[in-house]
Amino acid sequence: MNRLPGYHAPSATIDRVLRDRNAQWGKKIFLTWLQTGSTLSYRQLDELTLRVGAGITAAGVSARGHIGVFMNNCPEQLLGILGPARAGFVSVPLNAAARGQLLAYFLDHADCVALIVEEELLPHFLEIREQVPRVRHVFVARPDRERKAESTPQPADITLHEFTSLTTAPAALSGESPDFKDLAMLMFTSGTTGPSKAIMYTHAQFVYWGMDVAHHHEYTSDDVAYVFLPLFHGNALLGSTMGSLMSGAAIALAPRFSVNRFWTHIRSSGATVFNGVGAVTNFLWKLPPSPTDRDHAVRRCHLAPVPSFAHEFEARFGMTVMSAFGLTDYCLGAAYNTTSPRGKLGSCGQARAGVEIRIVDEDDFDVSPDTPGEIVLRNNNPWGASLGYYKQAEATAASRRNMWFHTGDRGRMDEDGYLWYTDRIKDAIRRRGENISAFEVEEVIRTHPAVDDVAVYPVCAETSEDEVAATITLRPGAAESFSYESLLIHCSRNLAYFMVPRYVQVTQKMPATLSQKIEKYKLRREAEADLSALWDRERSGVQVTR
Question: How confident is the model at residue 4 (pLDDT cuts 50, 70, 90)?
Fold first, then answer.
């Protein structure tokens, strides 16, 4: 197994890692908060997380209790995730956009007994506090933000604490340190097809994510990772942040993604690496070319998914594109980095150390090379994968059918062992005997100059067979020049004839989950309720030829 030295499972705890990082890189800056310019050294990170864990214990929170962390990106949020786990509590990062019943579901399902919340979001918790009676202690943080929340009276049934009471607590933990196999964190899935599930992370799994990212994506102590994706999701927390922590690198933390501030932040922070998702990549690509496009220190970026214009992206911005395949539900499965063959750019790379990958059919039998099927994983590293879904044994067992983790993703493996992602299985479309990747159609439509974003999905038409539908949003100012015919011509030039959408809908805003994943099932349901409301190329007489 190709592990970074020093952390086999019995020593892989958050407490041990932070102590070691302090000993090795104590004075070095680990985190720069771009909102104010404030910093945390490795020594301060060690000390403050130790204080947070000890302070929660001193406040009377029950041992091994689950601590919700309801915050937007800020240094206090990271302290609130790592600190409790050091003291044997279980951190539960919550999506900062959650409201009402959804917020209550998160707190109730995760059995939270305490909450760390930023002041701005406290009213949203107070609205539902009667639905979560187990939450008795609330620690209120006041990060330096542009907008201040109104003061809130002390509720009678809970105890409000200042977050500063944690960061000024004595830096000493009582009792035994957590074990590598103890639960450290619950992280909620996006819930695109049903209620969000809480993924169980041991200390070892938490640490291993950082080790694997650091190794396979080539993090070194000279790196500065620009982090703008939310820390309550795996990409920013397990990838950029833990990868940096395990390699002695630094992170430059932004409150959120801003296309206007992106390159300013990149240059001012000296960032050398960043992680981007589909929408971010498209926003950056669609910026007008500038003489300063390569005026930065970024050497590599991780993009998910890899866009069709990846080679052009590398050339324009002067950086190397990396990719990977992994799920917060299980583990990092495959990686593609700067040493991978550039002819394989667009793939997710090869299986990483200690992980097996297969492509299987509906009955879990292997398919031939370059044949699409479901991607299944098996992690052979002890304690290297998540424990499953909290309080959902049936869902856990179903995901591990036949002793392989079933990702729900469709892909293919080429003869050289490189994994190519196709789409989510539920996004696949079968039209007149042809299998169509919604992802591939979306990639082409996004290159149309008027299109801002797109979702492609199947709809059942009059023949009771799938037809391809696309819902798009337009770039500002593009509505007057856009035409359905121009979009269809663009698709015909770049796609097989059977992939060209029959139905097209223009909308102002896509329905999305809290993690901004488009809820295609809602678009499909709305479309099938009244297909006449969508533009139909057959009804309009537009012909698509072979």
Answer: very low
At 31, the pLDDT band (50, 70, 90 cuts) reads: very high
User: Cα–Cα distance between 508 and 519 in angstroms, integer?
Assistant: 15
Write out pLDDT tens, residues 102-137. Answer: 899 999 999 999 999 999 999 999 999 999 999 999
Chain-centroid distance, C-alpha 494: 30
Is 380 strand, coil or helix? Answer: coil
d(CA 540, CA 546): 19
Look at residues 202, 218, 241 and tell me which one is the last residue of a structural domain: 202
What angle is formed at CA 46 by the lines to CA 40 and CA 50, rounded to 5 degrees? Answer: 120
What's phi and psi for 123, nearest 5 deg? -55, -30
Q: How far is residue 158's CA from residue 134's CA, in Å, rounded to a whole number? A: 10
Residues 6+ apart with CB under 8 A from 485: 540, 542
At 543 the three-state DSSP class reads coil
Tell me the CA distances in angstroms from 416 to 218, 310, 340, 375, 411, one per residue in order.
22, 21, 12, 16, 15
* Maximal CA-CA distance, the chain: 75
Q: How many domains does the chain have?
A: 3
**Mean confidence (pLDDT) of the chain:** 91
DSSP string, 150-169: PP-PPPSSSEEEETHHHHTS
Given a contact cutoff of 8 angstroms between Cβ atoms, the answer to whether 528 and 459 are in contact is: yes
Statement to judge: residues 117 and 52 lie in one domain: yes
Q: For residue 102, give the CATH number of its domain.
A: 3.40.50.980
Contact 321, 340 (CB under 8 A): no
DSSP 177-226: PPPTTSEEEEEE---SSSSPPEEEEEHHHHHHHHHHHHHHTT--TT-EEE
